[in-house]
Amino acid sequence: MGRKIIDLSLDIYHSAPTFPLDPKCAVIVHHTVDSMGYNISQLVMSTHQGTHLDAPFHFLDEGKTVEQLDLDKCIGEALLVDLTHKRPKEPITVDDFMPVADRIGEGTRLIYRTDWHKQYPQKHYFSDFPYMTVELARWLAERKIGLIGMDVPTPNPTDFDPVHKILLGAEIVIVEGLARLGDIGAERFFFMAAPLRIAGRDGSPVRALAMLESIGDTGGPL
């Protein structure tokens, strides 16, 4: 009976928190029904606000920009790995993915769940999350996956430069700031995180979605 849609995105609102040095988010009333006959707002924010993706140009001047991304990497079947046992500031390592290593290869859309989104919008959301090691980034790059998604604000808060350069250098799309991955209830699901077509730039907010077969659906596999 159709498909079930799960919204995996954080809200965008006036003064929504960001990393300390990032542009601040502003959602400003520009006109209202009373002033102009319709409501319209001004939106000012980072290309990496909330739930968003990184294009290679984010860390690599020669890397692809948002409008050059292969959207096939951003839309399609994904593999969800449960890492909710990870504690704050605990490393996420290659060993954590060994149980599903045989399903991780070229083009895989890989997403890991820590449930860290529940800490948003508290200040420590941006600093104390379980983090990807440099070694894991290299392991994923060697396997030529297409996308890595996570419910934390960035892969690594301290080694962010080498981790991003390894992943983006391998043209892996990075989707950060996902939410509610626990609502999916399946290891494989259809994932969508299409960016705005921002020409020549480094990233974009996304409306990330999971699409699942509803009970009674006989339409076959996604």
From TrEMBL:
Domain of life: Bacteria
Gene3D superfamilies hit by this protein: Putative cyclase
EC identifiers of the protein: 3.5.-.-
GO MF annotation list: hydrolase activity
Record InterPro entries: KFase/CYL (IPR007325), KFase_sf (IPR037175)
Keywords: Hydrolase
Enzyme class per UniProt: hydrolase
Pfam families referenced in this protein's UniProt entry, alphabetically: Cyclase
Protein name: Cyclase family protein
UniProt source species: Cohnella boryungensis
